[in-house]
Write a structure and sequence with these properties.
Protein name: Replication initiation protein, RepL2
CATH superfamily: Winged helix-like DNA-binding domain superfamily/Winged helix DNA-binding domain
CATH topology: Arc Repressor Mutant, subunit A
Order of helices and strands: HHEHHEEH
Largest sheet: 3 strands, antiparallel
CATH class: Mainly Alpha
Structural class: alpha+beta
Radius of gyration: 15 Å
Shape: globular
Amino acid sequence: MNNDDKRKLLDVLHRTAGMTANQRLVVMLYAVHPTDRAGAVVETGANLAKLVGMSPTVFSRTRRQVVEAGWLEESERLAHISYYRLSVKSTGEDVVVPLRRAT
């Protein structure tokens, strides 16, 4: 991990300062976990819960709170499994390209 990656993670940690410990843990888990090309963490909630020592129920409830607060967004759904990625609120990165008037 290079210094730029570390700065981005510290920035996410700083942005989540007002959240509960479990909410911050979920956001940081999504920030550090490997992602696909779309930025989604392609891992089941049960496996992610196990990584951080939470029950699947607590993890699912906490992730839902984080999604509702705008920190994570659903990236894709395969069968009955949803995959999530960090939202712009988490990363602070502006991924929207401004529109220009056609001339």
